[in-house]
Amino acid sequence: MNPPSALFVDLYELTMAQLYYERGITGEAVFELTVRSMPDGWEYLIAAGLDRALHFLESLQFDDDDLAYVASLPQFDSEFIDRLRQLRFTGEVWAPPEGTTVYPDEPLIQVVAPLPEGQIVETALINLIAYPTLVASKAARAVDAADGRPVIDFGSRRAHSSDAAIEATRAAYIAGFTATSSLQAGRLYDIPVTGTMAHSYILAEDDELAAFNAFATRYPGTTLLVDTYNTAEGVERTIEVAKRCGPGSIGAIRIDSGDLLTESRQARQRLDAAGLVSVRIIVSGGLDEYQIAELVEAGAPIDVFACGTNIVAPRDAATLDSAYKLVEYAGRAVAKRSEGKPSVGHRKQVWRLPEHDEIHPFDGGGVADAEPLLRPVMEHGRRIAAHAESLTQMRERAATRVIQSSVSVDQALLD
Which residues are 323's β-sheet partners? Predict the structure, then answer.
């Protein structure tokens, strides 16, 4: 998927950049994107979105139409427009690999570049990193709650844009979802696709039985949506069609409404009594980790959970409390002291130990028996090929989540 335009920038980033150039404030800067705090009840975050962020940095360039628009604004002169015409990202980037378990105050991305370059990319990097990390973290919690049962993505229609939908599907797949209903995401990222029918098909046919017969005949092994009119009756019609069409004709039923615990139990009893023990039960309908956990704990005979709205647009976390802050300029540490929103100066490295993380100055040396989380992924404005990864590698990393008891910040960073 294409990265955002270079014009995906807030006005103040360009007004500052113009003054940086005019006043010669163009030395090496270090910016870090962090999350200040997690949503209530969340134990961890899963880093995501890095690949597209690096794509954006590699392709950063203001085109003629971008420059014409900026030139039409009263704040900017022709000399600055010429600088923007020549602007490319030339810096380096350090970050935890996608799928890494991360925590507040740990950089999700660290940019080391001439100050104007690092400033201008602020809005895009927050957008490209924070939302996928939010979705990956929410999706991972759903996978945890499912306790080994597959969880699939039905969220594209509920995401807040088509781009967000595709990135959400990718993030959920990294977190452990097994498939998606989105063909575009499936094609772009080689994610398995799934899905069969909606209520509209059943409503358009003469009756529910005719609809079920058509799908089972045309798509052997199909999933039938049984709650359009009455779930119990839908299950009985499923049994009728399965007997008529033979073994393997029905792969699963899906229940999208009502009391999912009661409906799934009753459906399982009817299917088993009819000898359809291999027909799976899929449930959907506004699910998140809390509802999934309740159903699993109650012993619901559910084989697959399909999640959409409350993963791509979580009710308990509309956004991550993220910030992109300057932490060093020209070799000196800088930090905000704003009440309620202080930042931690110094370029940092995060060291992972078996039970806790430690955040230290970047140049402070290593920590015995610890793994550094921030790795070099870009230098001189180009990705480091050795650190390119597949989604499979990211999924494997996310599957081995590291739940830490604490994160400590070196006092040297706070002084």
Answer: 34
pLDDT at 328: 97
Which residues form the domain of 65? 11-134+319-414
Closest-CA residue to 253 (of 227, 218, 217, 285)? 227
d(CA 188, CA 196): 21
Record the tokens describing residue 92, joined without a space.
């380096």
Rounded (10°) CA dihedral 233, 238, 240, 242: -170
Check which CATH number belongs to the domain holding 369 and give it: 3.20.140.10
Record the tokens describing residue 329, joined without a space: 């300029």
**Backbone dihedral region for residue 381 (phi beyond 0: left; psi -120 to 50: alpha; all else: beta):** left
Strand partners, 224: 253
Q: Is residue 23 part of a domain?
A: yes
pLDDT tens digit sequence for 153-196 = 999 999 999 999 999 999 999 999 999 999 999 999 999 999 98
> Does residue 228 belong to any structural domain of this protein?
yes
- pLDDT of res. 32: 98
Q: Looking at the domain assignment, is residue 4 inside a domain?
A: no
Same domain, 329 and 280: no
Length of the chain counted residue by residue: 415
| Domain match, 54 and 115 both | yes
Q: Crossing angle for the helix pair 162-175 and 391-399, nearest 10 degrees?
A: 60
Instruction: Name the pairing type of β-strands 280-283 and 250-255.
Output: parallel
- Whole-angstrom Cα Rg for the chain: 25
